[in-house]
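ok, trying the design again with the full structure, not the truncated one.
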């Protein structure tokens, strides 16, 4: 099913992520660890396995009990033609998809709980994070239209990459799969991280029994995981699951800042814990190349975006699923600008 001309580089690698599933993986991409130490630690990592595609007759639709009556029929959704990745977005750019799920039980592949595109732009020395909302209603080659997170369950990272290419015109260079395992200990080993809570968030977490306040907070693993996974509380600019993805990106930034400040000795020591909890299709040489690239960048902050962008989708109920039906034309243009570093929010 995969396009034979698609830019893929498969091999072996494993990272770690945090409660927001992607977190530690980003740290590893941006970490300034010594090449020899990384090579030594490569024995901890493993590759993303190719999976058999689910029989299309067995595909499932994850219905929502509170969705109510369908507001649209599947045939009412009309898609524009597929697009190719634009030259402006692809030049000097490496796209890494961080895929998170709630479980990594052997032999069990769940739907992807979180998907964050990490786009590293060598020309501009920028790194941009783009959350892809899991309730997006998209085209899945070989299957019915469905939520985008279903494509990972149906065909693993390869099918998810193909779905992103087909719908948004973005080629994924590498994949990193992660889960919640080890998240709390990584945060604690770093001595905690700094996060900023709105008054609404602070009130919500206080009601859950946590001693936090509006404004800056220094938190440890247990709370950081809760913070990253919470769906039903707004941030300053995003509500519900949109707020959750914004918190995930904020936590990635905080983890990066904490990691880069601990010093190279501790960075190397932490890699052993990080690498054994993630899987990737990158080779050792590709990992090292990215580490060298990141080391040369002057990264003061990470860009933070999400797809769909405001005003470019509608909330619908299709086949009993509460979904976000995107205007693909608008979102394709937006994601290309995000990758190129020219998007204005």
């Amino acid at each position: 099913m995969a396009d034979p001309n698609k830019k893929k580089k498969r091999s072996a690698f494993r990272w770690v992520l945090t409660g927001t599933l992607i977190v530690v993986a980003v740290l590893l991409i941006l970490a300034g660890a010594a090449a020899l130490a990384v090579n030594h630690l490569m024995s901890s990592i493993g590759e993303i396995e190719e999976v058999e595609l689910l029989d299309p007759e067995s595909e499932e639709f994850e219905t929502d009990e509170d969705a109510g009556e369908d507001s649209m029929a599947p045939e009412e959704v009309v898609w524009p033609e597929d697009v190719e990745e634009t030259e402006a977005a692809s030049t000097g750019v490496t796209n890494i998809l961080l895929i998170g799920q709630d479980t990594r039980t052997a032999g069990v592949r769940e739907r992807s709980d979180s998907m964050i595109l990490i786009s590293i732009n060598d020309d501009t020395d920028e790194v941009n994070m783009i959350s892809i909302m899991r309730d997006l209603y998209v085209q899945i080659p070989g299957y019915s239209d469905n939520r985008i997170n279903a494509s990972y369950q149906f065909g693993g990272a390869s099918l998810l990459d193909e779905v992103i290419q087909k719908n948004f015109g973005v080629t994924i260079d590498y994949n990193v799969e992660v889960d919640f395992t080890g998240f709390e200990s990584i945060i604690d080993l770093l001595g905690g991280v700094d996060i900023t809570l709105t008054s609404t968030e602070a009130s919500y977490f206080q009601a859950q029994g946590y001693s936090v306040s509006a404004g800056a907070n220094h938190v440890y693993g247990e709370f950081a995981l809760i913070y990253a996974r919470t769906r039903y509380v707004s941030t300053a600019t995003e509500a519900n699951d949109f707020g959750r993805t914004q918190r995930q990106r904020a936590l990635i930034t905080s983890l990066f800042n904490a990691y880069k400040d601990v010093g190279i000795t501790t960075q190397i020591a932490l890699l052993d814990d990080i690498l054994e909890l993630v899987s990737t299709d990158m080779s050792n040489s590709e990992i090292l190349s990215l580490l060298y690239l990141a080391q040369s960048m002057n990264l003061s902050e990470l860009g933070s975006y999400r797809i769909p962008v405001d005003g470019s989708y509608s909330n619908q109920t299709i086949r009993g699923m509460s979904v976000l039906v995107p205007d693909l034309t608008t979102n394709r243009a937006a994601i290309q600008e995000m990758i190129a570093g020219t998007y204005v929010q």
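Keeping the full-length input from now on. The mean pLDDT is 79.
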